[in-house]
C-alpha cells in the first residue's frame, strides 16, 4: 500500500516535467547563418497618460554566427558584443554611457563604477556550445575569455589587485548576463500563461501570419505584474524575430519613487532581430548596364576606415557592351557612392547613394533612350536603392556632390536652397511612403543618414553671417534662419548618428565646428591687415586642437567623439612643420597624450588598430633614412621602386592625386635641371586610363603610378596629395616642400658641400654615447667608493676585534696579578709576619689603584710603567730579600715614550717567583731600557735558577701571564702593522727576557 503514493508522486513529477517542457518554445540557430540581435531593457516612470517622466535604457547588440570551428571540428556559436550602452534620454543634458567608447577622461581609471564588466564584454570573442535537445547554451572558451580579460586590464594599466577584482566581477556578472541574453532567443518561456489565466483583464491572441507565429497579450488596467507581451517567431526556420514584455511594479514602490499614486514604474524588455543572413565575405559588388552612356568611367567610393571620412575609391570603364562590375571590401553596413564620369574633369557628375551590406550585390540598369532616363536596381536591397534614387530626383540631389570633397560648404553653391528647404520640410513624409517596401534595418539606417545630411545643411545656413549672405543670396534682404534652427533643435545629432555612415561622420566634424562658432565669442586675428572681402562660410579651429577636442568632448560622445579625435590627431601630426621647433614638440606631446588615452580607453579594436597602424606609418617618416618600399608602375607597366632613383642624383618626388596639377611646371624644372631626378607620383584605380593619359601628356619628368585598390597614398605617405619629398644623392631625405620651386631649391642645396655640422641624429648619438660613458664613470666611482667603504668597514671591524681581544687579555691579566699579590699576603700571614703583611697591604692598595687606572688604557708612558713595576718589586721584597735595579738610557724621554700598559709586570713576576725565590745566596734583578735606531729595547735579567730548573720544581704552574703577553704583542703587531719582538734566553745563571718595541713616530 505504501508504494501507491510513491508511484502517484512519480507520475505527477513526470507530467509536470513534460508540461514544463511543453511550456518553453525551443528554437535553434542554423549552421552557416549569422544573426544580429538587439537587446533593450528599459525602466521608466509614467502617469495615466503614458508620458514618460524619466527613463533608463540599457541596450546591447550581439553579432552571432553558427559555424563549424576548426581545428576542433565543432559547431559553436561565435558571439561578439558590437554595441553596449546605457542612456537616460530624458535627462538634460542627455546621459550616455557608451561602454564600447567610454567617456574620454585621463582620470577615468580612478572612477570605475560597479558595471565595468560591461566594457570588458565589448572587446572579447565568445564561443558557446548549443544543446540541440534543450536549446540551452553554455560558454565553451571560458578559460581563454578570462585570460583575455586579464590581458585587456593589463593593457589598460590596472594594478594586479584591480585586475583580480574586475576579472571576478566579469566572471560572476558579465558572463551570466551574456548567457542569459543568448538563452532568451532560443528558449522562450511561456510562464506568462498562468498569470494571464488568473487575470480577467487580459486580451490575448495567437495567430500564424506569413510563416510567423504571433503571440500577443495586453492587460486593460495598470495593476502590478505583467502588462503586455508580444512574441513573434518562425517555427519552421527556428528563429525569434521579436520579443517585448512590459511589467509594472507595485503601487507602493511606484509611490516611493514619485510620491504620486497615479504614476507607475514600468520595466520593459525588448529583443529585436536586426538581420539574419548567410555568413558572407566582407565584400560588396556593384554591377550595371547603361544603354546610352554619357560617360565611360564608373567610380565606387566606400567608407572603410573605422574613423574619419576618407573614402576608398575604385574605378572601372564600361566594356564594349556598356556594362561594368566593381567589387570592393566592405566590413560594415553603410551607404556607398556610385559616380558616373571622370572625377578629374568635372565636379557636377551624377552620384547614386546605394545602401550596402557585407556580402551583398546590386545591379544598376539604365535602359532609357537618354542617359539615366530609366534607372532601375536589382539585387540585394534594391528597394532601398530605388528609394534613395527617388529621393534624389524629388529634391534634385543627384548632381550636387563630388567625391573629392563631401562637405556641405563646398557643394552649397550647387545646391538650390529652395530644393533644400523642400527636403527639410518633406523628407519624412517622402521616406515614410517607402517604409513598408524597404527592409526595416536598411530603412532606419538610410533615414538617419538623410537626417544627418540635412542637419549639415541646416548648420551651414544657420551659421552664415551677413557678408556671406550678401554673397550667396544677393536678392534677399535677410535670410530666415528659423527653419534651420528648428530642425537642429528637433533632430539632435546623437539620435541619428551611424558609426559607419559617411554623412554621420561628416556631420560630426561640422557639428563640432558649429558648436565652436557658437561658444567662442572672440578670437585672435589671423591678420592685422584690413580684408574687406573676407567671408565666413564655416568654422574651423584646428590650429588650437586641444580646445577643439575638449569642446568635442562636451557636444559629442561614443564613436562620434573617438572618430573625430583620431582623425584630428592624424591631421595635426601630418601637417606639422617638418622642421624641428619648440611649438611642434609641444604639439607632439599633446598628440601623444590623446593618442595614448584612445588606446587605453577605447574598446573598439578595429579603431585602435587602424589608428596605431597610421600613427606608426607617420612615425616612420621621422627617420631621414626612411624610403617607402611599395611597388609602383611606370608608363610602360614595369615595376619601379623609390630606391631605384636614389644613389646618384638628388631626387624630388611629387605626391599628387591630381594627374594634371603642376604637371607642366614640374616638367619645365626637370628639363632645366638635369642634375636632379624629378618624379611625379600619382594614384588611381585603372592603370590603362593613366597610361593613356601619360601618352597624351608626353611628360619629361619621371612618372609613377600606384594602383590603389589595396593600398593608397594615405597608407604610405604623411600627406595624401600636393607635397614634395626631397632626397639627396646619397638617398637620405633632405626636406619636405609644399611647392615645386622650393623642392628644386632644396635639391640644389643638397648638392652643396656639407658643412661639418652635426645633424640631429648624430648629435643624439653623441649625447647618448657621452651620457653612457658618464653613467659608466659614475657607476664605477660609486662602486669604487662602495668597495673602499666596505674595505674600510672590514678593517674597522678587524681593528675593533683586536681591541676587544686586547681588552679581554688585559681583563685576564688583572685577575692574574691580583691572585699572585694576594698569594704573597697569604704567605706573610702564614709566616707570622703581621707587620710586613700590614705594610704589604698598604703598598698593595696603592699598586691596585695604578693597575685599575692603567687597565682601561691601551698604552701608558714608560715612566708610569716603570713606576708601577718598581712599586711591585718593593712589595715583593717584603716577602723575601733580593736586589733590583732599573736603568733607563739618557736618550729616552721616559715620560713621552708610550708602551703597552701592564707590559713588564708579568715578566718581572716570573723572574721573582720562578727564578729568584727558589735560589739560595745572592739574588739580583736588573731592568734596563735602551734605544736602538727606531726601536726601544727593554731587557729583564735575573740570576735565578733558570727556566728548566723552575719547571722541575713547579710543574703545576702554567705561566699564564707570559702567554697572555705574547698573544697581546702579536695582536698589536697585526693591528699597527709594525714589528714587536719578544725573546727569552736561558743564561748560565738565570734568564734574560728582551722586548723590542717600535718607537712612536
The residue-averaged pLDDT reads 83
Q: Which structural class fits the helix and strand makeup?
A: alpha+beta
Kindly report how far apart the N and C termini lie: 122 Å
Oligomer: single chain
CA radius of gyration is 51 Å
As a percent range, the share of helical residues equals 40-55%
Total number of β-strand segments? Answer: 35
Shape: elongated
| Percent strand | 15-25%
**SS element count, helices:** 28
Could you characterize the architecture of this molecule?
With 1001 residues, this protein is of the alpha+beta class. Helix content is 42%, strand content 24%. It is built from 28 helices and 35 strands. Strands 2, 3, 4, 5, 6, 7, 9, 10, 11, 12 and 13 form an 11-stranded antiparallel β-sheet that branches. Strand 24, helix 19 (663-672) and strand 25 form a beta-alpha-beta unit. The model is unreliable at 1-5, 7-22, 253-258, 409-413 and 532-542 (pLDDT under 50).
Set out the fold topology.
Layout lengths: L2 H20 L1 E3 L6 E14 L5 E18 L4 E15 L6 E4 L18 H4 L5 E5 L6 E3 L2 H14 L4 H27 E3 L2 H7 L3 E8 L2 E8 L5 E10 L4 E10 L2 H8 L5 E15 L4 E8 L6 E6 L9 E6 L5 E7 L4 E7 L10 E6 L4 E6 L8 E5 L2 H14 L12 H4 L5 H16 L7 H23 L3 H7 L9 H9 L2 H4 L5 H18 L25 H11 L2 H17 L7 H20 L3 H16 L11 E2 L5 E2 L10 E5 L7 H10 L4 E8 L2 H11 L4 E6 L5 H4 L6 E5 L5 E5 L2 H12 L8 H71 L3 H22 L3 E3 H16 L5 E6 L9 E3 L4 H12 L7 E9 L2 E8 L4 H7 L6 H17 L4 E6 L4 E8 L3
Parallel strand pairs: 14-20, 24-25, 25-26, 30-32
Antiparallel strand pairs: 1-8, 2-3, 2-13, 3-4, 4-5, 4-6, 6-7, 9-10, 10-11, 11-12, 12-13, 14-17, 15-16, 15-18, 18-19, 20-21, 22-23, 24-27, 27-28, 29-31, 32-33, 33-35, 34-35
Helix pairs in contact: 3-4, 7-9, 9-10, 10-12, 10-14, 14-15, 14-16, 15-16, 16-17, 16-18, 23-24, 23-28, 24-25
Amino acid at each position: 500500500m505504501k508504494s501507491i503514493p510513491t508511484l502517484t508522486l512519480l507520475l505527477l513529477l513526470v507530467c509536470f516535467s513534460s508540461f514544463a517542457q511543453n511550456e518553453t518554445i525551443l528554437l535553434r540557430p542554423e549552421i552557416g547563418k549569422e544573426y544580429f540581435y538587439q537587446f533593450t531593457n528599459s525602466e521608466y516612470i509614467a502617469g495615466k497618460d503614458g508620458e514618460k517622466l524619466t527613463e533608463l535604457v540599457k541596450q546591447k547588440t550581439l553579432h552571432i554566427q553558427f559555424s563549424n570551428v576548426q581545428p576542433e571540428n565543432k559547431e559553436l556559436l561565435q558571439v561578439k558584443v558590437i554595441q553596449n550602452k546605457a542612456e537616460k534620454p530624458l535627462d538634460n543634458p542627455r546621459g550616455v554611457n557608451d561602454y564600447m567608447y567610454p567617456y574620454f577622461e585621463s582620470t577615468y581609471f580612478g572612477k570605475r563604477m560597479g558595471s565595468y564588466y560591461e566594457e570588458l564584454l565589448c572587446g572579447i570573442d565568445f564561443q558557446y556550445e548549443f544543446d540541440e535537445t534543450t536549446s540551452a547554451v553554455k560558454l565553451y572558451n571560458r578559460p581563454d575569455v578570462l585570460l583575455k580579460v586579464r590581458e585587456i586590464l593589463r593593457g589598460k594599466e590596472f594594478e594586479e589587485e584591480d585586475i583580480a577584482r574586475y576579472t571576478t566581477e566579469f566572471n560572476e556578472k558579465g558572463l551570466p548576463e551574456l548567457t542569459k541574453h543568448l538563452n532568451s532567443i532560443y528558449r522562450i518561456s511561456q510562464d506568462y500563461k498562468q498569470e494571464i489565466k488568473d487575470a480577467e483583464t487580459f486580451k490575448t491572441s495567437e495567430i500564424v501570419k506569413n510563416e510567423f507565429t504571433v503571440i500577443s497579450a495586453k492587460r486593460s488596467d495598470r495593476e502590478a505584474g505583467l502588462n503586455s507581451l508580444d512574441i513573434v517567431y518562425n517555427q519552421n526556420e527556428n528563429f525569434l524575430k521579436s520579443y517585448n514584455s512590459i511589467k509594472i511594479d507595485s503601487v507602493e514602490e511606484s509611490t516611493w519613487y514619485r510620491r504620486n499614486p497615479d504614476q507607475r514604474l514600468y520595466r520593459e524588455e525588448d529583443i529585436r532581430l536586426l538581420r539574419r543572413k548567410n555568413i558572407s565575405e566582407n565584400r560588396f559588388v556593384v554591377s550595371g548596364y547603361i544603354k546610352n552612356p554619357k560617360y565611360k568611367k564608373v567610380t565606387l567610393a566606400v567608407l572603410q576606415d573605422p574613423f574619419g571620412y576618407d573614402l576608398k575609391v575604385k574605378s572601372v570603364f564600361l566594356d564594349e557592351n556598356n556594362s561594368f562590375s566593381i567589387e570592393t571590401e566592405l566590413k560594415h553596413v553603410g551607404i556607398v557612392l556610385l559616380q558616373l564620369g571622370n572625377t578629374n574633369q568635372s565636379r557636377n557628375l551624377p552620384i547614386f547613394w546605394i545602401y550596402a551590406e557585407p556580402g551583398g550585390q546590386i545591379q544598376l540598369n539604365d535602359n532609357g533612350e537618354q542617359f539615366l532616363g530609366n534607372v532601375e536596381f536589382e539585387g540585394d536591397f534594391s528597394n532601398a536603392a530605388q528609394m534613395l534614387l527617388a529621393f534624389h530626383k524629388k529634391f534634385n540631389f543627384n548632381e550636387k556632390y563630388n567625391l573629392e570633397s563631401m562637405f556641405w560648404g563646398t557643394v552649397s553653391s550647387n545646391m538650390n536652397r529652395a530644393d533644400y528647404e523642400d527636403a527639410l520640410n518633406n523628407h519624412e513624409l517622402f521616406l515614410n511612403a517607402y517604409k513598408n517596401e524597404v527592409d526595416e534595418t536598411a530603412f532606419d539606417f538610410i533615414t538617419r543618414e538623410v537626417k544627418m545630411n540635412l542637419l549639415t545643411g541646416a548648420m551651414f545656413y544657420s551659421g552664415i553671417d551677413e557678408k556671406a549672405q550678401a554673397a550667396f543670396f544677393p536678392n534677399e534682404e535677410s535670410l530666415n534662419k528659423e527653419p534651420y534652427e528648428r530642425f537642429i533643435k528637433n533632430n539632435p545629432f546623437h539620435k541619428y548618428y551611424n558609426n559607419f555612415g559617411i554623412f554621420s561622420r561628416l556631420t560630426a566634424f561640422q557639428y563640432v565646428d558649429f558648436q565652436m562658432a557658437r561658444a567662442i565669442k572672440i578670437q585672435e586675428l589671423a591678420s592685422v591687415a584690413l580684408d574687406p572681402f573676407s567671408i565666413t562660410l564655416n568654422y574651423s579651429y584646428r590650429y588650437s586642437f586641444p580646445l577643439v577636442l575638449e569642446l568635442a568632448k562636451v557636444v559629442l560622445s561614443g564613436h562620434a567623439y573617438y572618430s573625430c579625435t583620431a582623425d584630428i590627431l592624424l591631421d595635426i601630426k601630418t601637417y606639422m612643420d617638418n622642421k624641428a621647433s619648440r611649438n611642434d614638440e609641444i604639439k607632439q606631446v599633446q598628440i601623444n597624450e590623446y593618442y595614448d588615452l584612445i588606446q587605453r580607453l577605447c574598446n573598439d579594436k578595429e579603431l585602435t588598430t587602424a589608428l596605431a597602424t597610421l600613427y606608426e606609418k607617420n612615425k616612420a617618416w621621422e627617420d631621414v633614412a626612411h624610403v617607402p618600399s611599395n611597388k609602383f608602375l611606370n608608363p610602360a607597366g614595369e615595376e619601379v621602386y623609390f630606391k631605384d632613383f636614389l644613389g646618384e642624383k638628388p631626387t624630388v618626388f611629387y605626391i599628387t592625386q591630381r594627374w594634371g596639377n603642376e604637371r607642366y611646371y614640374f616638367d619645365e624644372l626637370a628639363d632645366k635641371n638635369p642634375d636632379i631626378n624629378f618624379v611625379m607620383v600619382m594614384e588611381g584605380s585603372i592603370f590603362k586610363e593613366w597610361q593613356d593619359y601619360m601618352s597624351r601628356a608626353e611628360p619629361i619628368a619621371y612618372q609613377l603610378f600606384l594602383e590603389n585598390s589595396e593600398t593608397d597614398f594615405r597608407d604610405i605617405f604623411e600627406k595624401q596629395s600636393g607635397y614634395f619629398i626631397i632626397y639627396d644623392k646619397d638617398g637620405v631625405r633632405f626636406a619636405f616642400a609644399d611647392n615645386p620651386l622650393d623642392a628644386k631649391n632644396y635639391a640644389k642645396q643638397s648638392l652643396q658641400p656639407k658643412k661639418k655640422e652635426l645633424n640631429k641624429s648624430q648629435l643624439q648619438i653623441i649625447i647618448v654615447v657621452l651620457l653612457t660613458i658618464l653613467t659608466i664613470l659614475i657607476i664605477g666611482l660609486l662602486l669604487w667608493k662602495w668597495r673602499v667603504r666596505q674595505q674600510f668597514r672590514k678593517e674597522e671591524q678587524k681593528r675593533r676585534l683586536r681591541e676587544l681581544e686586547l681588552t679581554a687579555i688585559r681583563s685576564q691579566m688583572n685577575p692574574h696579578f691580583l691572585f699572585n699579590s694576594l698569594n704573597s699576603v697569604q704567605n706573610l700571614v702564614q709566616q707570622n709576619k703581621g707587620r710586613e703583611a700590614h705594610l704589604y697591604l698598604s703598598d698593595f692598595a696603592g699598586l691596585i689603584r695604578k693597575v685599575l687606572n692603567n687597565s682601561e688604557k691601551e698604552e701608558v708612558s714608560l715612566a708610569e710603567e716603570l713606576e708601577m713595576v718598581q712599586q711591585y718589586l718593593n712589595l715583593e721584597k717584603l716577602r723575601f730579600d733580593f736586589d733590583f735595579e732599573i736603568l733607563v738610557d739618557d736618550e729616552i724621554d721616559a715620560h713621552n715614550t708610550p708602551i703597552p700598559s701592564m707590559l713588564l709586570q708579568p715578566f718581572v713576576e716570573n723572574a721573582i717567583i720562578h727564578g729568584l725565590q727558589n735560589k739560595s745566596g745572592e739574588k739580583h734583578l736588573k731592568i734596563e731600557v735602551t734605544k736602538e735606531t727606531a726601536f726601544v729595547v727593554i731587557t729583564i735579567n735575573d740570576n735565578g735558577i733558570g727556566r728548566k730548573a723552575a719547571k722541575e720544581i713547579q710543574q703545576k704552574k702554567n705561566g699564564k701571564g707570559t702567554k697572555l703577553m705574547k698573544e697581546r704583542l702579536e695582536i698589536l703587531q697585526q693591528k699597527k702593522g709594525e714589528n714587536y719582538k719578544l725573546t727569552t734566553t736561558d743564561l748560565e745563571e738565570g734568564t734574560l727576557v728582551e722586548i723590542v718595541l717600535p718607537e712612536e713616530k
